[in-house]
Amino acid sequence: VERGLTAIVNALAPGGRFAVITFHSLEDRLAKVFFKERTDLLLITKKPITASREEIKNNPRSRSAKLKIVEKI
Length: 73
What we know:
Distance between the termini: 21 Å
Order of helices and strands: HEHEEHE
């Protein structure tokens, strides 16, 4: 996960954004720590975006998904 995130950040131009969807708490923690440690990233979503109740009702697997968006400075 860390190698992938590093590769994406290195490929981004300044002002470029990317989104990460995690499905497990370990993945989420790795992404959260990675984003906090990087000084060249701005976290766009202060709290992760999660599925609505209706989305979970229609798609039960979405209940664990968390979306985070960052921008390269």
